[in-house]
Design goal:
By secondary structure, the protein is an all-alpha fold. The chain contains 12 helices and no strands. It is globular and about 60 Å long.
Length: 367
Amino acid sequence: MKKIVAKQVSMLELFYDLIFVYAISRITMMIHHPIDGSLPPRIYVEFIIVVIFVLQIWLYQTVYINRFGTSRAVDTVGLLISMFAAIYLANNINTEWQLTFHAFNLSAALTTINLIFQYLFGSSTHFKQDHDLQGFIIALGLEFILLVTGLIIGYQYGVYLCVAGGLIAFLIPLAMYRMFRPEQVNFPHLVERLSLIIIITFGETLVNITHYFKGTIYSPLAISIFLGVATLFGVYTLLVERFLNHHQHTRGFIAMYTHVVMIISLLSITAGIIYMADEEVSRLFLSCFVASNLIVFYLCLWLYSFYNRRHLRFNGRDLTAMAIVLLLGSLGIVLCRETNLGLMSAFALTNVVEFGLMEWKLQRTKN
């Protein structure tokens, strides 16, 4: 089997990522403020849709560079156009969809048609001979048609077509799964790109917890919050840097889809930490919100471990131990909900023990 040579992440790709720092902060603002002590399901669903909508655009650009990008003029110009459109897209993210309907979806349509041109003219293979290329063009073409049709119809009914366009572009590759060839994916590059978007999301978490770091530097609450966030990041980093086999032929679908859900759960946990400062928020809602999203994050992480090195794959005993810790920790978050320190202590302890179990797994395999 041909050895995979890791494609280097370019400076332009990192420059492109900068706008998604802003986009993720705008998305988080959608659920910053609870209503009547909790988060209305409608707003949370809208938040999830926007995360998917924005990230599927980021993923299509990343996948193009991963499979076809060679730093030619078409790649550079295409990436800059995508970034230009993404700035408008990010600036029009809010919960009042009617106000920014045209600007947001025009930006999405521009990005989509730009991606179609990149895939058509930036790849080195002929459209009729490359099934991967056909699959991506079909998905992006359907999204573009639905976006334009929705814009023509107008907000009242067109919003549903625009939402459908983003969701179809996100999900349709699953229906065409076997069209895509594993050997066309540069997995080390994909892992690095996905790790960068997770780092951006953790960065958003750090920015939003800073208001707890006031007064004495030995604040128990600040220490527990920081320890919880840091060890959660540590668990992710340990898996990526020590457990994953970066040099394998795979379509990468599990990696991409789990990261979208992980980002949703991380931003939700961030919102939960913000809610702790609001005395009107229901403590039961708050604790369940944080605990359930922590569970979702770990479930995605364990799915991502599908790519682990053979000798570091989690067996039944590993998963059982980690699942028990997660469930007990989540129960602790709910039971200790009456104080912020108790809730965050349970959150931090869960992540510390999970990190310890993974480190123990590494040490056992060395012996």
